[in-house]
Design a protein that fits this description.
Distance between the termini: 51 Å
Largest sheet: none
Number of helices: 4
Radius of gyration: 16 Å
Order of helices and strands: HHHH
Strand content: under 5%
Shape: globular
Structural class: mainly alpha
Amino acid sequence: MIRTFWANTAAFFIAVTYAYFTNTLAVFRKRLTWRNFGEFYQMRIATLLLDDGGLMWLIHMGLGEMKAKIIVNVVIIIINYLCSKFYIFKKKEAAELKG
């Protein structure tokens, strides 16, 4: 159990770091900054808590583990995209136009 937890945690941080670079450079075509990096990680940790909570709740409500994970993942992907588009990378556009 402990090995699974640490493996999952390591995978989370590797995946979020990769997602930051991919979203910044390929999806939103922005510059890499420490501020964006910090905001991106904060948002992803918050959605991780929603992910875990939603998963536990749906399983507790009687939904199977696989169905619960699929439903929660779809919701989390949408939330992550919207937060990135309208919060993390959007406000940088306004600052870039001014400067």
